[in-house]
Amino acid sequence: MTPSPTTHKMLSPKSPLFLSLFLALLLPFSTVVTALKLAAELTTIEYTAELIAAKDYFHNGTATFTTGGVATIVQDKSIDLASNAETQALRQFATHKNLRIIYTVSEVAYRLVARKKSAVTTAQDLKGKKIGTFPGTSGAYFVQKYLASVGLKPADYTVVSGSVCRAAPCGSGTLPAMLASGAVDAVGLWEPTMQLAIDAVGAGNVVVFQDKSVYRELFNLHSTTEKLQDAKTRAQIVAFVRALAQAQKVFAAQPETIWSRVAAAVNVSADVVKAVWPVHGWTGGLPADLLDVLVAEDQWVAAVDRRAAMSRAVLADLVDGSVLKEALQG
C-alpha cells in the first residue's frame, strides 16, 4: 500500500509523533540514574566511610552530601539519609517519631585527656577539677558517664565549654589550647580534638582515660519512615548500605590505603588520622546493645532538654533493622 501524503508526513523523523515513538522504544533500554542526598557533619572522620562508599562502591546511582545531620533530615524532605551520634538522634526522635536508625557507620571509644601538672594520676583525681567539653553533645555525655563510672558525680567537678580543633596550632577557645594553657585540667570529646590536645601538651605530660565498655560513640546512619516506605528510594538506600559495608571492610583491614583520602576529605593531617585510627571501629551492622545504649542515654538527653525520658518501647521504634537485613541478602 502506498502511504498517503498525510501518513508520510506524520512519520517524518522531524514529526512529534516520530520522536515520541522513538523515545518510547528507547525507554525500556535506558538506565535511570537516581541520586541519594545525604546530610552529614563533613568535618568528622566517622562520616568518611560514607564518602568512600559513595565514590567507590555505590553503583546504583549517585550520592551527594550536604552539611548537616539528623536535625537536617527531619526538617528537609529532600534528604534521604543522615548520620550523627546517638545523642542527636535521641534529641530529634523525641519530637520526630518518623526518624529511624538503620546502620552503624562507626563506633568510637572517646578519650578523656588530663594534665599531669594538675596533679592527676587517676580518674578519681579529677574531683574538684575543671573539665572541658562541648555541652549537650556525645562528648559531654561521655565525660559524665565516664566520671560516674569511677565514682564522681557532676557536682564533684566543673564542666567548661570549649570548641573542637582539627589542625594545629589550635586557637584560643579550643579544647587543646585550653588544656595546654591550664584553663582546664582535662578535656573529653571526639577526635581529632583529643589527639591534638595530647600533642599540644605533650604525650609525656598527660594521662589518658578511656573505657569503651562505659561509653563509645555510636555514629549511625538514619533515614525516615517516609523514605523507607518509598519503594524506589528504599532500593537505593539498601544498595547504599551494601556499599557502605564494602567500604568499612577497607577501613578495618586496609586503612593505610585510605588514610590520605580521609585526611583530605576532613582537612586533617594524615599523621593525625593515622594516630586516631585505633579508637575508631568499623564493624558495621547494628550493635546488639544499641537499644540498651539508647534507653540509658535518653535519661541524660531528656534531663538536658528538660523533657520526660522516652520508654524502652518507644525507643525500640527508633531502630529499624530491615534495611540491613535486605542489604545482607543482596
Automatic annotation (TrEMBL):
InterPro entries: SsuA/THI5. SUPFAM superfamilies: Periplasmic binding protein-like II (SSF53850). Residues 70-257 form the SsuA/THI5-like domain. Residues 1-35 form the signal peptide. Pfam families: NMT1. Keywords: Signal. This is SsuA/THI5-like domain-containing protein. It comes from Cercophora scortea. The lineage of its organism: Eukaryota, Fungi, Dikarya, Ascomycota, Pezizomycotina.
